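Input.
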Amino acid sequence: MKKFINCKAASLALILAMVFMTAGCGASGGSSAGGGTSADGTQESSAAGDGASTDNASGEKIVNIGITDSLGGMNPLTNDQTWVNKYAIGLQFLPLLDLDEDLNFQPMLADSVTTEDNRNFIVHIDENAAWSDGTPVTAEDVEFTFLRLASPVIANPTLMLYAFEGVNDDGFVEEGAESVEGVKVLDEKTVQFTTKYPIALTTFQNTYAFYLHTLPKHILGQYSEEELSTLDWFNHPDVVSGPYRVTAYDVDHYISYTANEQYWKGAPKIEKLNFNILDSSQIYAGLQSGEIDVTHHTMTAIPQEDYENIEALENVSVVYGSPVTNQSVFIQTANIPDERVRQALVYAIDRNQILEQLMKGHGEIVDGFLSSASPFYDESITPMAYDPEKAKALLAEAGWDGSQTLRFYVNSGDGTFVNAAQAMAAQWTAVGIKTEIQTVDLATLMTIAGTTDYDLFAVQYTYAPVDPYPDIAWLLGGEGSWTGYGNEEINEALAATQTSGSIEEMKQYYSVVDKKVQEEVPMFSAYIISGQGAVNKRLTGVNANVYGFFINVHEWDIAE
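Output.
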């Protein structure tokens, strides 16, 4: 979800979400995935009943991943960076780097990313990297992709490419640009990125290398920027760099993949992979029956009432992730300009009670952006306590008369937070704040977020623990951001993180940010999630962690 949206996640993502990744008439994905038809007219096996199985007729190994977030589409030039979009696209078009479970950046398409001055970043493409048609992946492919992502015709609003030399402040280059000062091909496998101002290596890695899904210039270079915006090729590409290629999808129900047998890191052992987009209430039954083989911490919102039932299943292994996914509530400060009202919104809700009752304690309460998983987390910042009387007093000071109804948008795919939102609304009502909860699917929620036509909205947002800078900078970027809030003290602290030489110094700067956010409340965390992930015990090689989930997906297998 990064605004880059990293609903990510935002972190990230910008990925986002995060990120980024709610009861109501807006619920989507309410049925199991059905079969689809591929580009060549053959029937794809995307039904949930094919879980972790070897098809007796074809001999193919099939794995189903159960998710609850709806897909934005398969075109990497037009999608935002929510986790489901990042992963759905990344299986076909590798990012330059990926984060592993220990929060280290691992090579994907690139085998190195280096800098000596925090302005010039040298990216070297793996010498073995090749497209599925045998053509080498080159630095020109990377340059081509960057220019199309920065195209004002394609006009993807979610990437922060304005940081690079030659890119306009709106994040776009001139229409039809064939080169830009900030991206230079040095040789067949090496490209140099140059920024307008210093940024940390981790920021370049996490904000750009993590999300830049390189496209094949030799295939797509023939199309205009306008044609690329709607090109059907992305719905069933025949040339990819990743382990799988999509053959059919429905944004609300399924994505079907078949293995790229020419994958340069080794042919996948699982011939067919499916994302089954379900209602959160269907996940437990799918795991129990074996129709769903894998769930993921950021893409699958499992109702907390099902956690213990899933733990008790004999056919799955359960892993709780680190608390990295923030159930963030963003306040459009232009609509709620008085910080006393924003503070009252937090004092009025019992976040600890919500965490214990709905999350079974799997998580934590913090103020600001950073969880205890981040090396920059400041444990001295005490979260604002539940104090409805203080909330009432703040509202009285602000002259709040209770006549305004706040529009609160939440993700219909996250059943747990729908319940949390209803509890919050009841507690707000108790202090004199009326809210109207609107439940919409994730894709719609992201569209609404971009319009700023809301008072509050909530989304799961994973702020990258190793580099929260891009998300925070965007979310607190003033007019046009999700909060509409800006602060010079925060801007100075964030800028200092990009030139700081130590973790302790960066921690101090991020502490300035979180303390100011706690004080003026442009956003708050309902809770931080230690999400549950599950893997069918028949599968081998699956990395059941928040990060690094698909790094070695080509090595997944089904035990005989």
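The chain has 15 helices and 24 strands.
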